Amino acid sequence: ETFNDAYNDPDLLSLRQDIALCESRIADLVTRVDTGESGAAWNALKAALLEYESAEFGSPEHGGPLGACTS
């Protein structure tokens, strides 16, 4: 009986709200890619990484461990 109740419960695996939220977020992110907003964020992150590498390990061009990731 428990199996049949679970099997026939239409809300048991309902993910409609979760999927709608994900679809909305994806659509928002796609519009940001077109405006260059995403690129600006990645460039800022790259600059921050270079600054960190330089402070922590010395110049990434001269043996910093993450230097290869920033080209």
Taken from the alpha-carbon principal axes, the silhouette is elongated
Give the oligomeric state. single chain
H and E string: HHH
Q: C-alpha Rg, in Å?
A: 23 Å
Indicate the low-confidence ranges by residue numbers.
Answer: none
- Beta-strand percentage range: under 5%
Q: Output the structural class.
A: mainly alpha
Main sheet overview: none
Span between termini: 62 Å
How many H/I helical runs? 3
Helix amount, in percent? 55-70%
How many beta-strand runs? 0
Mean pLDDT: 76
Describe the model.
The chain has 71 residues and is an all-alpha fold. It has three helices and no strands. The longest helix is centred in the middle third of the chain and has 21 residues. The chain starts with a helix and ends in a 14-residue tail after the last helix. The model has no long low-confidence stretch (mean pLDDT 76).
